[in-house]
Amino acid sequence: MQFSGKSLADASDAIRFAVAKGVAGGAFEVDGITGATRTSNAITRTIRFCLDEDGYGPLLDAIKPGEF
Fold first, then answer.
1. Rounded-to-integer distance, Cα 39 and Cα 59, Å
2. Coil, strand or helix: which one is 9?
3. Which end of the chain is more exposed for a tag (fewer CB within 10 A), N or C?
4. E strands of 1-68, at which residues?
5. pLDDT tens digit string along 5-19?
C-alpha cells in the first residue's frame, strides 16, 4: 500500500498530504497516476478538506487526547 509510512500533517499539524505528479518524493506525498491529474487533484483536495477545520479535523483533534 503506497500510503504506508506516509504522514498527513507536519510537526505543526498543518495538513501537507498531496498526490504527486508521478512518483512521490516526500513524506507527505503518494504516487500519482499518469494522465489522471484531475483525479489526483480531487483526492488531494478531498483528504485535505476532510482533515481540516471544516471537515473532521475537530473530531480527530478531540479523539487524540481522549476527549471524545
1. 27
2. strand
3. N
4. 18-19, 29-30
5. 888 888 998 888 888
pLDDT of residue 1: 43
Beta bridge partners of 9: 15
- The whole-angstrom separation of Cα 37 and Cα 57 is 26
- Within 8 A by CB and 6+ apart from 40, the residues are 19, 20, 21, 32, 33
Count CB neighbours of 21 within 10 A.
Answer: 16
Q: Which of 32, 5, 35, 33 is nearest to 19 (CA)?
A: 32
Q: Is this prediction's pTM over 0.70?
A: no
Pairwise CA distance, residues 59 & 33, whole Å: 31
Helices marked H in 20-56: 37-51
In terms of residues, how long is the chain?
68
